[in-house]
Amino acid sequence: MHRVILKFRGPPSWRSSRSFLRSQKPFVHHNNTDLHKRLASSDAPQRPQEKSWLWYPGTLLALTGVGYYAYENHQPSRHAVLATLRCSRLARAAISGAIDYKLTLARTYTSEEERLEAVSQCHVRSATKVLNALLANGGIYIKLGQHIASLIVLPKEWTSTMAPLQDRCDATPYEGIAALFLSDMGQTIGELFDDFDPIPIGVASLAQVHVGHHKASGRKVAVKVQHPHLVEFFNIDINMVQSTLGWIKYWFPEFEFTWLGEEMRENLPREMDFVHEARNTARVVADFENIKTSLYIPEVISANKRVLIMEYIQGGRVDDLAYLSQHNIDRNKVALELTRIFNRMVFMNGWFHADPHPGNLLIRPASKSSNSPYNFEIALLDHGLYFDLERELRVNYSRLWLSLIARSSPTVDADRRKYAALVGDITSDLYPVFEAAITGRLSPDGIIEADDGSKSDTQRATGMLDMASQIEEMELVRDTVTPGDILVSVLDVLRRLPRRVLMVMKLNDLARHLDHSLATTHSSVRIFLITSKYCLKAVWQDEKNRFREGGLGLGSFLGSAWAFATEYSKITFIEMMMDWQASLVKSSAWLRGFYSRGLAGAHDAAAGLY
Q1: How far apart are CA 568 and CA 538, in angstroms?
Q2: Mapping DSSP to helix (H, G, I), strand (E, B) and coil, where does residue 133 land?
Q3: CA 454 to CA 449: how far, in whole Å?
Q4: What's the rounded Cα separation, in Å, for the pair 449 and 363?
Q5: Taking a C-beta distance cutoff of 8 angstroms, is the pair 295, 383 a contact?
Q6: Residue 308 DSSP label
Q7: Among 44, 180, 312, 561, which residue has the least CB neighbours within 10 Å?
Q8: Measured distance CA(307)–CA(31) in Å, rounded
């Protein structure tokens, strides 16, 4: 058996311990030094590296330079920036206005007067926001505002707020015009004209007009030049308009204006093509070639897509009473002749000028070779946009108008609603608003009810011939259709109506507006009679066509002939009586002017100058 012997030498000596510590000292010292450094670095703030402050402004400056270069030299980048900016302006104004309407119409008011005032102020606030956005954006946005201003069924606060857009358009600098001539015509302005006024005589949303002396024709001409930036931004702007209107419809379905964007996309390219305008000019000249009329269409000398050279017309605005007085032009005859011109376009030709406003009309004394039956000619300008009116729609609209002329009866009232449905898909609940818009009258039951059941105290006439003693028609309808749900109904009517019908209503509104601006002495119903006579002609022409085509029997045809002859004679007699009354009013004014200021005063008073 082996025995293991373990020798115990006792505890380690102090000396051996000290030698171990001495061997570990370098390691401990090194680790402690690192620990102290780490603790010091975590407690005390680090000192930035030298010149690090240059990094941030340098980076910002570089990014700014890159962005500026991209904006100036890279078209997609510039378009993206401008599109975002323009869209945000319009969207902010539109959505803010829609919310304002929501809140205003949802409040409870102590009286009907308080509510009407609140709604009116909401109209003004919303229209002003949109106006500022349109002015800031410019371009086709100005055209959008002009469309809004021409919607006669909108509240007057909207149309009056947007009215300045008809005249507030920025001119393209002369350098831009000169560059456009060189790129589009291949010649400089100096090569084409002996003289060219760099300051335009008129500026519109799509173009501006200069006066020059054309070398090739040797004539003084009016030169219509399109704003160069329109082509560059057209697609972006029209997409932004449609997108904004689409978002408004999504969030606020009752405020539906997407049709306005669709209309602009369809029609603006036509208006921006001056070759198309030259073709329209030739067609309207042919339509009136054998008609005894005061209408005059300026001759087109040269047409390019963005440059139109035409005959220069020296004249005055058609509503300038001082100019009419100076040239002994009867303002009553001017108002009536304008109504005849536009009604012939609509009801007989079925093809009519779709941008009528006083700025597109000039008047001048007739020359000896003129075809005018009066001592004046009316020059119609800007033929970029015309609408056609197909036969069925034209006849149905004529029948609707004739039913509105007739005195109310169960049969007549049924015809009114029948033809309103055929013309504009107008349902029974929307018919009162539609009738008020088209005629300036109130609803068939004598009132238009607001959403709380309150009623207007203005009574309607049973037919338009009874309206002679009533106040301004369009003021009446606009004041009536604004409260509560009626506004939504107006927007619904606008959405349903064919654009052609809306443009016909716009022509009617122009006739009423000019009749008022000219301070005519005849009844306000007088121009309605002219429209009625052309509606009778349209219906009679349709009856004759149906008879020739075998769709109308002999008895019905003879009955239609008798109805046409009797109604036309009746309206002609009423016209004669109204014109006689108008001459008496003018004679009375002449006598008052003569009594107070002699012959000069008599002339001015008869001319409506005071």
Answers
A1: 12
A2: helix
A3: 6
A4: 43
A5: no
A6: E
A7: 44
A8: 87
Q: Is the Cβ–Cβ distance between 217 and 311 less than 8 Å?
A: no
- Of the chain, the percentage scoring pLDDT greater than 90 comes to 44
Q: What is the pLDDT of residues 492-506, one digit of tens each?
A: 777 778 888 888 888
| Residue entry with tokens 């997409």 | 239
Angle at 482 between CA 267 and CA 99, to 5 degrees: 75
- Residue 71: is it exposed, middle or buried by C-beta count within 10 angstroms (0-12/13-18/19+)? middle
pLDDT digits (tens, 9 = 90+) for 92-117: 888 888 889 889 988 999 998 898 89
For 305, other C-beta atoms within 10 Å of its C-beta total 14
Q: Among this protein's residues, is 184 annotated catalytic?
A: no
- Mean pLDDT for the stretch of residues 230-234: 79
Cα–Cα distance for residue pair 277/279, rounded to 1 Å: 5
Overall average pLDDT of the 453-481 stretch? 42
Q: DSSP string covering 170-229, please?
A: PPPPHHHHHHHHHHHHSS-HHHHEEEE-SS-SEE-SSEEEEEEEETTT-SEEEEEEE-TH
pLDDT at 208 > cutoff 90 = yes
Assign 333 to helix, strand or coil: helix
The sign of the CA dihedral 318, 322, 325, 326 is negative
Residue 365: beta bridge partners? Answer: 376
Q: Positive or negative CA dihedral for 346, 351, 354, 360?
A: negative
C-alpha distances (whole Å) from 237 to each of 131, 173, 227, 292 are 16, 21, 15, 44
| Three-class secondary structure of residue 17 per DSSP | helix
Quick one: tokens of 432? Answer: 């009162």
Listed residue (359, 141, 150, 310) closest to 229, CA to CA: 141
The beta-strand segments (E) located in 463-604 are none
Catalytic residue among 287, 355, 515, 604: 355
* The dihedral sign for the CA sequence 27, 33, 38, 43: positive
Whole-angstrom distance, CA of residue 339 vs CA of residue 360: 15
d(CA 580, CA 606): 15
Cα separation, 264 vs 280, whole angstroms: 19
Give 392-433 as a DSSP string.
Answer: HHHHHHHHHHHHHHSPP-HHHHHHHHHHHHHHH---TTTHHH
